[in-house]
């Protein structure tokens, strides 16, 4: 009896030890979560002041013309790039520099190969860039932003999403630091862009600063030059005065015509500009109103 009792105690002790063994699947899951948390940038660490004068001199590199832009470094998988190349960040900031020193092989500069066709001008934290990339996986989406911290955030988030995504999503998303008002024409060729987005642009309320508004007569001619026939410009703002300004200037320009609500039925981009950006979500939370307009290049 005493031996049986000892055996039972020993068995119980063995069972207890077995119960205390770590669950490898739980450890792996925890390790994966920690890795994802390390990869994904935290938005709060990248905030900076909202306004930069776009008419100031440009303190960072920019290309002489589209022949000097290498799209392969931004979208490696669309040029048979390796996984290692796909996880590198080049976005024209101090942390992730790039150069435009020499002409690029025509396969990489868009003359023969792929190039961006959706542009989010002033992309901020990149909400629209991510949603466009997800909804249009075959289209190359590019965010243009002048504030370096925001560009770093978007680019590092794209890198993290590329690594984490099991089905290779977000290979078609990229972001670069540039001043679109000064240099957009130096990145893209005539008639190559399908859609341009201007979401919650700086209203520049003072009359003396209206020339800094991104929708302006001279800039519209450049946008018309870059857009394909029937390419679209999407504008959204929570400032009624800015909306009226944008709509008036676009309507006056002979290369654009306003699209009616009937013509916009089925255009998912109209919904995306409402809900995808950080600014748009903030307006929704505060119960504010948003004004939108969409124009087509004729």
Throw out a few tags for this protein.
298 residues, alpha/beta, Rossmann fold, 10 helices, 14% strand, globular, Trm8_euk, RNA-binding
Number of strands: 7
SSE series: HHHEHEHEHEHEHEHHE
Which CATH architecture of the largest domain is right? 3-Layer(aba) Sandwich
Radius of gyration: 25 Å
Poorly predicted sequence stretches spanning 5 or more consecutive residues: 13-19, 30-35
Span between termini: 98 Å
Please bin the fraction of helical residues.
25-40%
Helix count, DSSP H or I runs of 4 or more residues:
10
Bulk shape: globular
Looking at the structure, the CATH topology of the largest domain is Rossmann fold
Tally of separate domains: 2
> What's the mean pLDDT score?
89
Q: Strand order, main sheet: write it out.
A: 3-2-1-4-5-7-6
Main sheet?
7 strands, mixed
User: What is the CATH superfamily of the largest domain?
Assistant: Vaccinia Virus protein VP39
- What is the CATH class designation of the largest domain? Alpha Beta
3D architecture notes:
The structure is a single chain. The chain has 298 residues and is an alpha/beta fold. It folds into two domains: 61-112 and 140-189, no CATH class; 191-298, Vaccinia Virus protein VP39 (Rossmann fold), CATH 3.40.50. 36% of the residues lie in helices and 14% in strands. The protein contains ten helices and seven strands. A seven-stranded mixed sheet has the order 3-2-1-4-5-7-6, with helices on both faces. α5 (148-164) links the parallel β2 and β3 (173-177). The longest helix is centred in the N-terminal third of the chain and has 19 residues, at 2-20. It is globular. The protein starts with a helix and ends with a strand. This is tRNA (guanine-N(7)-)-methyltransferase. It catalyses: guanosine(46) in tRNA + S-adenosyl-L-methionine = N(7)-methylguanosine(46) in tRNA + S-adenosyl-L-homocysteine.
């Amino acid at each position: 009896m005493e031996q049986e009792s000892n055996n039972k105690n020993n068995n119980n002790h063995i069972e207890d030890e077995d119960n205390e063994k770590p669950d490898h699947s739980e450890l792996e899951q925890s390790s994966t979560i920690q890795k994802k948390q390390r990869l994904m940038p935290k938005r709060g660490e990248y905030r900076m002041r909202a306004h930069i004068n776009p008419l100031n001199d440009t303190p960072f590199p920019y290309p002489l013309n589209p022949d000097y832009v290498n799209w392969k470094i931004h979208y490696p998988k669309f040029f048979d790039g390796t996984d290692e190349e796909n996880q590198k960040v080049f976005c024209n900031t101090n942390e992730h520099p790039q150069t435009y020193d020499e002409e690029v092989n025509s396969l990489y500069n868009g003359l023969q190969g792929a190039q961006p066709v959706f542009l989010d001008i002033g992309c901020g934290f990149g909400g629209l860039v991510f949603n466009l990339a997800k909804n249009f996986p075959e289209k190359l989406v590019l965010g243009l932003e002048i504030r370096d911290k925001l560009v770093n955030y978007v680019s590092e988030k794209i890198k993290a999403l590329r690594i984490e995504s099991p089905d290779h999503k977000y290979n078609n998303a990229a972001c670069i630091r540039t001043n679109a008002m000064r240099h957009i024409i130096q990145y893209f060729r005539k008639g190559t862009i399908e859609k341009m987005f201007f979401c919650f642009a700086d209203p520049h309320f003072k009359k003396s600063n209206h020339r800094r508004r991104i929708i302006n007569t001279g800039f519209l001619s450049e946008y018309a030059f870059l857009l394909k026939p029937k390419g679209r410009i999407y504008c959204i703002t929570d400032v009624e005065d800015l909306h009226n300004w944008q709509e008036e200037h676009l309507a006056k320009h002979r290369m654009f015509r306003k699209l009616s609500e009937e013509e916009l039925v089925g255009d998912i981009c109209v919904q995306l500009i409402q809900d995808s950006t950080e600014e748009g979500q903030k307006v929704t939370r505060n119960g504010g109103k948003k004004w939108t307009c969409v124009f087509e290049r004729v």
